[in-house]
Amino acid sequence: MKMRIWRAGEFKKSYRWERSGLMRFEEEFERQIRNLIDKGYPGFMGLEEAAFRELFAPLKERAAERMREDFKPGEGSLPFVLVVTTGTLPRDEMMRRVERSGKNGFSVMEAEDLARFEPIEGVELPEGEAYLLLDVDTGSETLNRTPNEAMKSFAEWNRSPLTIEEGIAVITQFPDILQKNHGFSLCGSRCGDRRVSALWISGGKPKLGWCWAGNPHTWLGSASCGARI
Prior knowledge:
The chain is about 30% helix and about 25% strand.
């Protein structure tokens, strides 16, 4: 079967896969790996570059097969995003490795507090040190809806909420998808209270913070994915 050729824009505000420009799956897969290497992820995992690349080798063919399927992402949607489970790199440090318009990300949540957030029941993460998010959406349909309401919609739409690590992975690879008037909650990680972590722009920088699960915001949606492999 012929490899699907993605027609992509420059990943500006809409993040639509436009007719102008071409981006092959292989090129984007390599770009994301190289981006993680440049940000020092192999070192934090105690791996040489070659060993780090090997983590993604089994995923590439499986992902390529999925990319051959008909996929029509809309605004705020991405076909796939690489995720690494470092284990040794705190989430606040991961945020500092996010760069958008020359400004690094930050977290207003302490490392100890962030460590309390774990995947919720029903969110099953693939085993291993690397996996792929497929059909990622940053929540255009859930703007001005509470995270609690968004979770009900995800169940109806057969989608899964993103975890904190997954949200950071998204903006690590696609920082401009985070907009001043469109941040997104990460409902897939909770710590037992009424808070939900979220990503938004503050002072021109990507920010990791939290909001109440029962409060809506016009500028905040809830991010989800269609699958993890």
